[in-house]
Each structure stands twice: as C-alpha cells, then as structure tokens.
Amino acid sequence: MSDHPTVPSVAVVAQWVDNAVWSTPIVDLHTHLYPPAFGSLLLYGIDELLTYHYLVCEVVRAGSIDAEAFYAMPKEKQAEHVWQTLFLERAPVSEACRGVLTVLRRLKLDVASRDLKSYRAFFKSQSPAAQIDLAMKTANVRTIVMTNDPFDPVERECWMKKAAVDPRMRAVLRIDPLLVGWPNTAGALSAMGYTAGADLGEKSMKEIRRFLNDWLDRMGAIYIACSLPPSWKYPDDSPSTKVLDGAILPICRERGLPMAMMIGVNKLVNPALRVGGDSLAKADIRSLERILAANPNNRFLITMLSRENQHELAVTARKFRNLFLFGCWWFLNNPVIIEEMTRMRMELLGPSFTPQHSDARVLEQIIYKWDHSRMIIAKVLKDKFNDIAAAGWPVTEAEVQRTVSAYFADNFENFLKAK
Prior knowledge:
Layout: H1 10-23, E1 26-28, H2 46-50, H3 53-62, H4 67-72, H5 75-88, H6 95-106, H7 116-124, H8 128-139, E2 141-145, H9 153-160, E3 169-170, E4 173-174, H10 176-180, H11 184-191, H12 202-219, E5 224-228, H13 239-255, E6 259-263, E7 265-266, E8 279-280, H14 285-294, E9 300-304, H15 310-319, E10 323-325, H16 335-349, H17 365-390, H18 397-417
Parallel strand pairs: 1-2, 2-3, 4-5, 5-6, 6-9, 9-10
Antiparallel strand pairs: 7-8
Helix pairs in contact: 1-17, 1-18, 3-5, 6-17, 8-17, 12-13, 15-16, 16-17
C-alpha cells in the first residue's frame, strides 16, 4: 500500500471549492459606500439601484428620451422609466439589469411579480442601519473599505463633525485633486486652511504633507487612493509627479501605508450623462513600472480599467513585489472579462492577488457583484485545483480553504501590514 495521500476526485474538489467560496467572508477592499451617520451619501434601495449610472447609460441608449430629459425627472420617475424601458419592454439581459434581479432574489423579493411598488415598500420599511446589516449578511462581506474625499464639502463636514462610522467600515483617503487638479486645488486647500501655492514649492509641499497627515489621522485611513487618466506619465515635470514625489509617497513611506492607483479613466467624454459620462483607454504600463522601480520602499495597490492593459499588468506584478494587483474595475465587471482575467492572473501569479472588489456605490450592489463574482471565481478555482490533481498533486480541503481565504481577505490584509 502507498503511504501517499489520495488524489481527490473532480466532484470532491468541486464540492470543497463551492463550500469555501460561498462560506468565506469577504473584505471588500474598494467601495463608495458610507455609514448611516453620513446621511445622503449612503445610497440604498431599489430607486438608487435602478438609477445607477450603468442603467442610466443603457436607458438613454434605448432612445426614448435623452439624458437631459431623464435627469429633469424626479428620482422616482427616473426609476420607473428605467424599470419600464429596460425590464418590462426589453429583456433585462445586461449585467447591470441582471444585477438588480439578483439583489431582489437574494433579498427574497418576488422577481416574477415584476412589481416595482412592492420592492419599494420593502426598502422603505428598512432603516439604513438595518439595510447595511442585511446587505453585508446576504453578501457575506465582513469589512467594507470606503472611499473618502475631503475635497467633497458634504463628506468633509461629516468628518469634521466626527460622524459615527460603522466599525465594519474602514476609511480610505482619496486625493485625486492633488494629482490632477492643479492649480485649482491650491485654492481648495487654502480654503481648508492649508497655504499651498500653485507653484508647488517647498512651502506648498510642506502644507500638502500637513493636509495628508491631518486627514489620515482624522479618518484613520488604511491607504491613500487616486484615480488617474490613461495619459498619466511618471516621471515628468507635471504637478502630478511633483506632488507624488514631494508629498504623497514620502507620507506613505513614513506611515507605512500603501497607495492605490486606479489607472485608465477618461473623464466625461459625454458630459450630458454626468457621472455616467466617463470612458476608458489603454494606459502606458511603462509609467507604472518606473514608479514601482523608483520607489521600492512604497507599496502600491493597482488596478487598471482597460482590458488591453490586463496581461501587461499581471506580468508587471510578477516583477515587482511592491505591486498588489486587485479587482476587475468598472467596465471590466462583466462575467466574460472577469473569468478571462481571473484565469490569467491565477496562471501568472498563483494565489497572490485579490481577484475582485465590488466598487459599489449603492449598498445592495455588494450582493450581486459578489454573488456573480463568487460563481466565476469558483468555476476557475475548480479547474485549477483539478489541473494540479490531475498532475498527481493530492489537493486537500484545507489547501482549498487557505487559497480562498487568501483571495477574499488575507492577501489584502497581509499587504496592509507588510513592511
């Protein structure tokens, strides 16, 4: 008799993967959600789901009304128009429409009834705090990582008043205007009590560093984040490079914090669509390679928006241990692309990245985005574990669980702690 462990069957591996994928709580490392104390910034409920910009773009494309007419309607009328046009008059086959249906089903609402009034009644019966509890339990998410912008006057006021933050939510300092907004950002900083000039001299850098330290302390932020256009270059003589090198990266090193860079968004290619008017383009991977190489003592959380960047990005992650690759961002959050990206990343990087984040702006989106992504991640993991089992490797249930835990929480949390 052999002393070697038995190689499990395909069916056994599949069951282990399903058990682990659906039972393991998730750390959702990038969202746009808020606690109840932040008032109107917390978006939830069926009307917010239906008027999310993914669906607005789709309903305007359907052609019955233009963006100006759509936005002229009150929120409830907008939601009713989306429901009528995209769900009743057309088959709701897009991923954004399917997501709404998944939310309704997982909250045990009668999808077959197609009754928008009953869905509204359910959500109106829930308090914001109760809905957060329900959404997190349903999605099996244990930690929500927010995106927090001190340049937004509404949000800034919440932080200044020390509004209560749900302990399951972690803050992130979002600093886009510091990198893409000069010289206008100098005036915004001055209005907040920081004397920064448009010239970005040493006095300005000192004030920017003071701003960063103050807000990191106020929020208890776990990383600094920014969104960058595909045209972003590093290094160059732009304000972006000057602020990165003179303020942001030094503060990250001093405080041991990663910097998240989300690269590839072209802002407002169609301004009429408002927040839905952004698009994408392929970015220059060489700029990313240069900032990684020039700053080995900084850690970077990286995601890119263009599908055409994904192979280059995964290869770059093999070369730089200070790059942590995460998620299928925004326009990449489509099942066919998620599966392709997840397979490629597993094949190039093994279990050393985070395959997904929800990027949710409406609370209940965490339900559908994680349900849909879990199905895909499970499918890919079954193939990968059965591949190594077929090669004679005796896969164990503990090994499967360890891998899933790494993808869903441990990799990110360990990267935060890394030195």
